[in-house]
């Protein structure tokens, strides 16, 4: 994890300006050019590509810093995938929430098959540090096969129950909306890796809105978002 000095070294704008632009872009339905106009009204001349580079450079480090305060999700997972267009082609965003609606994990994949589903579950296991007691899926066969084959690759999955229920998965389908409502105004991505980083930032903001971080030791209760971000990044 880089220090804050390393992350913002060589930038031509103050750290507060960079964090503000990145946070607003990920949180609100703003285009890069919208942000350029908003900054111009504040006397700052920016190019939209500058903000795009800030997003790509900053999001991985922001994730690392926020994840130090992340709470583990529950052990009943609802898993589903939604669609994101990259360079005119559909890609697949695998996502999971627990029974309380808190985000478990996510992964953007170019493919929708057993291998992609397994990769998502391995990532979720690494993030949460423990396998779920149950996984609820829709009827897509590849995802079912992936879960069935996981215990042979890692014994921690052997007690996980597999369920298939359209009704129980309404929760994850509703949760997709919070992410897609921000992604859709971006009008598609041109590069897969850039899309993955940007979506990671959107997901981070979505988790922050849900209150999935234990910030008690930072004493930030009641503070405005800019102050909270500053405290988290500086901690």
Elements, N to C (H/E): HHHHEEEHEHEHHH
Average pLDDT score: 92
Largest sheet: 5 strands, mixed
The tally of structural domains comes to 2
How many runs of DSSP E, i.e. beta strands? Answer: 5
Radius of gyration: 19 Å
Q: How far from one another are the termini?
A: 12 Å
**Level of helix content?**
40-55%
Ranges where pLDDT stays below 50 over 5 or more residues in a row are: none
CATH class of the largest domain: Alpha Beta
Shape: globular
Notable characteristics:
alpha/beta, 5 strands
Compose a concise summary of this entry:
This protein is α/β, with parallel strands linked by helices and 235 residues long. The chain contains nine helices and five strands; from the N terminus they run ααααβββαβαβααα. Keywords: DNA recombination, DNA-binding, Transposition.
Describe this protein's structure.
The chain has helices at residues 4-7, 15-27, 32-40, 48-67, 114-128, 141-153, 170-183, 192-210, 225-234; strands spanning 76-86, 89-98, 103-109, 134-137, 161-164. It is α/β, with parallel strands linked by helices and 235 residues long. It has a 5-stranded mixed sheet, with helices on both faces. It contains 9 helices and 5 strands. It has 2 domains: 4-69 and 213-234, no CATH class; 76-190, 2-Layer Sandwich (Nucleotidyltransferase, domain 5), CATH 3.30.420.
SSE layout:
Layout: H1 4-7, H2 15-27, H3 32-40, H4 48-67, E1 76-86, E2 89-98, E3 103-109, H5 114-128, E4 134-137, H6 141-153, E5 161-164, H7 170-183, H8 192-210, H9 225-234
Parallel strand pairs: 1-4, 4-5
Antiparallel strand pairs: 1-2, 2-3
């Amino acid at each position: 994890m880089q220090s804050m000095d390393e992350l913002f070294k060589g930038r031509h704008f103050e750290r507060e300006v960079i964090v503000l632009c990145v946070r607003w872009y990920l949180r609100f339905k703003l285009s890069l050019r919208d942000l350029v106009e908003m900054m111009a009204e504040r006397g700052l001349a920016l190019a939209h590509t500058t903000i795009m580079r800030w997003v790509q450079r900053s999001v991985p480090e922001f994730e690392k810093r926020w994840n130090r305060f992340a709470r583990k999700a529950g052990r009943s997972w609802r898993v589903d995938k939604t669609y994101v267009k990259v360079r005119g082609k559909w890609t697949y965003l695998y996502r999971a929430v627990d029974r309380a609606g808190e985000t478990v994990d996510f992964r953007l994949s170019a493919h929708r098959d057993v291998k992609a589903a397994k990769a998502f579950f391995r990532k979720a296991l690494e993030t949460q540090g423990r396998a779920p007691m149950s996984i609820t899926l829709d009827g897509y066969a590849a995802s079912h096969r992936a879960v069935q084959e996981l215990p042979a690759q890692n014994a921690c999955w052997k007690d996980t129950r597999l369920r298939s229920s359209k009704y129980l998965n309404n929760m994850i389908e509703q949760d997709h909306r919070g992410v897609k409502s921000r992604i859709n105004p971006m009008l598609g991505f041109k590069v897969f890796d850039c899309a993955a980083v940007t979506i990671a930032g959107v997901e981070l903001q979505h988790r922050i809105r849900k209150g999935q971080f234990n910030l008690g030791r930072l004493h930030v209760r009641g503070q405005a978002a800019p102050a909270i971000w500053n405290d988290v990044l500086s901690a």
